[in-house]
Design a protein that fits this description.
Blueprint: H1 2-40, H2 48-61, H3 66-75
Helix pairs in contact: 1-2, 1-3
C-alpha cells in the first residue's frame, strides 16, 4: 500500500513540475518579448507615463540573472546588441 502512495505522490510531483516548466517557458517568452520591446523604444517619442512604465519594466528585466535573460531572449529568438 505504501508503494502506491509513493507512486501517487511521484505522479503528483511530476505533474506539478511539468506545469511549472510550462509556466516558466511562457514567462520566458513574455520577458524576452518585453526585453526586445524596451531595447527598440525611442523614449523621446513617448508620453512621460509610458516612459515611466517602460523604465519600471526595464528595471525589473535588469534584475534577471544573465542566464535567465539569455533564456528569455532565446525563447523569442532575439538578441540584444550591446
Amino acid at each position: 500500500m505504501q508503494s502506491s502512495s509513493y507512486s501517487a505522490e511521484n505522479n503528483m510531483l511530476r505533474a506539478e513540475l511539468e506545469l511549472l516548466m510550462k509556466e516558466r517557458e511562457t514567462l520566458l517568452i513574455i520577458a524576452g518579448a518585453a526585453t526586445g520591446l524596451i531595447a527598440e523604444l525611442n523614449t523621446h517619442d513617448l508620453p512621460i507615463r509610458t516612459v515611466e512604465a517602460a523604465d519600471l519594466l526595464a528595471t525589473t528585466i535588469n534584475k534577471l540573472s544573465e542566464e535567465t535573460l539569455q533564456d528569455a531572449l532565446g525563447a523569442v529568438h532575439a538578441t540584444i546588441d550591446a
